[in-house]
Amino acid sequence: AALIATANDAVITIGEDNRIIDWNNAAERIFGWKRDETVGHDLADLIIPPSHRAQHREGIQRFLRTGMGNIFNRRVESTALRRNGEAFDAELSVWPVRTAQGYTFSSFVRDISRRKAAERALAESEAKYRKVVENVNEGILVTAGGRILYANPRALDITGLDEETAKTHPFIDFIHPEDRERVLENHMRRLRGEPVENHYEFRVVHRSGDVRWLQISAVLFEWQNEPATLNFLIDVTERRQI
Hints:
By secondary structure, the chain is α+β, with helices and mostly antiparallel strands. The chain has helices at residues 2-6, 25-31, 35-38, 43-47, 50-66, 113-135, 153-159, 163-168, 180-191, 237-241; strands at residues 10-15, 20-23, 75-81, 87-99, 102-111, 139-144, 147-151, 199-205, 211-223, 226-235. The protein has a five-stranded antiparallel beta sheet. Strands 7-6-10-9-8 form a five-stranded antiparallel beta sheet. 19% of the residues are buried.
């Protein structure tokens, strides 16, 4: 009882009739209802959004009939309501307990609204940067271990590659044979953190068979928790011909 009373997560227990039996201090703080205002009341009417209430009640009845349920004994994310009507993101785990009088259902409920808001903000930020990267006039490649991990549309255009081919072949295959040693050595030295030329020009063999000159600017950075190189490419073929 002491552990439940002082838990950081809301701990709520209901009976088979969906009426609240227990409601800890964290539940009071998260939902805005005092314990004596909730005990004996239908849980769905207090904290479950109207659109989810029928599903909640049916889940309880299905378990009582069959002993099976989709949300029991695992963590799930859903939406809950505060006393003021505000909906928020919640993570909950529910487990049934057999007693002499029947089943009770207890749950830990955690307010994850801040985390979900941060995730949405990050996704929006990533979407904005991706839109920029995919529309710039420079080719952008992410490479590591001799492979292309990411190529923006401009990089695919100036090399003549499609995305699948770019990611399934060593990038050295697309370099002009006379420039392969230089490009690969610079790539490996950069991954090792050694001094290396950051700006130089090399040739690629376009899918059409044409040889094109590219100017590269590359830096070491982290991609999916592993060292990689971020490469900016400019087609300078016409300039070199002039």
